[in-house]
Amino acid sequence: MIFEVSHTPTYDYDAPVTRSLGDIRQLPGDVDGQRCLERSVRVDPVPDHLHERRDWFDNVAAVFSIRSSHIRLEVLSTSVVDTSERPVDFGPSGQTPWELHVVASRPVPAISAMEAAMDSALVVGGEALAAYAAPSFAPGRPLADAVLDCCHRIHEDFVFDADATEVDTPLAEVMTLRRGVCQDFAHVMIGCLRSVGLAARYVSGYLETLPPPGRPRLAGVDRTHAWVAVGLADGRWIGVDPTNDQMAGPRYVTTAHGRDYADVPPLKGVIYTDATESVLTVAVDVARRPAPADTPVATAR
């Protein structure tokens, strides 16, 4: 399970931009059981400064600055990622009661767990989230069963609708609409998990998409995706995807995680310009690298 990934956001402006400052989170790291074998980023126009760094959440990020005038900005990131070791279940710890994983009940909770259990800019707890979460988290229920049940209910109760919400649509409105996109579904689940005291992260990345039977695979038409990681008492983080009602296993590639979407947009920055409009186009491609010809193939018996 090795994927070759490319992600290219392009901004076209209606007037020259005299300076751009950007922050990129499109670069996978060694996290969530995956290994990044190669990664690179190219910015056009050629930046005066481009530097890879680690952010507060230990994500791989890159910052750049462009001082030359331009009317188009393109950021191409490419990577090769081995996802073979991504977890496909919760393991033995996930079979213990969910109450044992509540952050406040841990003897010495990690800072990462503490901040992932608190309200954040886009995920603020409330009665609606607590009430929605309650049926999944019966006393003594195994953590894995409770989390997967919550994931399943969100998948069943919320309708995927790309026109229903915007990036800044409040979570309370999403709970009323019961519609949205993967970002909204992830925020709903994070809010549910935090409402019962669990640590929950927003995860940004990619999901391998497969063409319909008999259709060729098209390059460049994949999309970024978002899911949730729940923090276990043993320190592990396990990914679940309420949009698709499944574990975030080897078909997923993580680029960044944070408290919510506001921490991990793929590209954000500041421009100096008189432009009043811009057009964003995004091309994403997630392609599984073919296995070598001499790789043994398992057969059913």
Tell me what you see in this structure:
It is a single chain. This protein is an alpha+beta fold. It has helices at 111-116, 127-133, 143-157, 171-177, 182-195, and strands at 2-24, 35-44, 49-54, 60-66, 70-82, 159-160, 179-180, 199-207, 224-231, 237-241, 246-247, 252-258, 267-273, 278-288. Strands 1, 2, 3, 4, 5, 13 and 14 form a 7-stranded antiparallel beta sheet that branches. A 5-stranded antiparallel beta sheet has the order 11-10-9-8-12. Strands 6-7 form a two-stranded parallel sheet. Strand 3 (49-54) and strand 4 (60-66) form a beta hairpin. The chain starts with a strand and ends in a 13-residue tail after the last strand.
Shape: globular
Task: Report the count of strand segments.
Answer: 14
- What is the makeup of the main sheet? 7 strands, antiparallel
User: How many distinct folded domains?
Assistant: 2
Q: In percent terms, what proportion of residues is strand?
A: 35-45%
**Residue share in helices?**
10-25%
Query: What structural category arises from helix and sheet content?
Result: alpha+beta
Nearest-angstrom radius of gyration? 20 Å
